[in-house]
C-alpha cells in the first residue's frame, strides 16, 4: 500500500509540473514566494486509539518533510510525509503510525509577512503494531485536513505552525478493522526556491 501511495504522490506531482511551468510564466513581478518550496517540521502526534490493555501513553514527538508548489499568493499543492503518533498500552505493546499526504492549500495573506492557510486532501496512513495480540498492521486511505499560519522572514525562508488531522486504522485479529483519529501539531521551516 505504501508503494502505491508513493507512486500516486509522484504521479500527481508529475501531472502538476506542466501547470507549474505555465503558472511560472504568468507570475507577476514582485509576487511573494511563488514556485516550488520544501521544508521540515517537528511536533506532537496525538493518536486516539484505545487498546485492550488500556492506554499508558498516547502521544509522541513526530517529524516530517514537505514539498509543494505555490501557484499564486492564494493557492498551493503540497505533499507531506510525517509521523502521526504512537500509542503505548499498559503492558508495553504499541501502535505507531505515519502518513503520506497530498493536499490543496488555500492561503490568505494577512500582510506582507504573515499568511494563514487551510489544507484539504487525501492521505495514506500506515500503522505498525508491536506486542498487542488483538491488533495487526494496517494501511488506510482517506481524507486529511489542516490549518496553520506562516511567517515569511524574506522571499526564501519562512516559519510555519500547523495542525493536521488524519485517520488511520489497525486490523483486528479475527476479522475487521478499527479506525482511529490523530491530530498532529507542528512547527517547521520552509524554503521557497
Tags for this entry?
193 residues; mainly beta; Porin; eight-stranded antiparallel β-barrel; 1 helix; 10 strands
Question: Concise description?
Answer:
This protein is mainly beta and 193 residues long. The protein contains 1 helix and 10 strands; from the N terminus they run H-E-E-E-E-E-E-E-E-E-E. Helix content is 13%, strand content 66%.
CATH fold description: Porin
Rg (C-alpha, Å): 18 Å
The figure for the number of domains is: 1
Strand order of the largest sheet: 1-3-4-5-6-8-9-10
In CATH, the architecture is Beta Barrel
Amino- and carboxy-terminal Cα gap: 31 Å
Enumerate the spans where pLDDT stays under 50 for 5 or more consecutive residues. Answer: 4-31
Which class do the helix and strand fractions yield? mainly beta
Strand residue percentage? over 45%
CATH class: Mainly Beta
Mean pLDDT score, rounded? 85
> Helices and strands, in N-to-C order?
HEEEEEEEEEE
Count helical runs.
Answer: 1
Number of strands: 10
Question: Share of helix among residues?
Answer: 10-25%
Largest sheet: 8 strands, antiparallel, barrel
The global form is elongated
Structure characterization notes:
The protein is mainly β and 193 residues long. The protein has a single domain (2-192), classed as Porin. Helices cover 13% and strands 66% of the residues. The protein has one helix and ten strands, in the order H-E-E-E-E-E-E-E-E-E-E. It has one helix spanning 2-26, and strands at 35-48, 55-57, 60-72, 75-89, 94-109, 114-130, 135-136, 138-152, 157-172, 177-192. The protein has an eight-stranded antiparallel β-barrel. The longest helix has 25 residues, at 2-26. It starts with a helix and ends with a strand. Mean pLDDT is 85; it is low at 4-31.
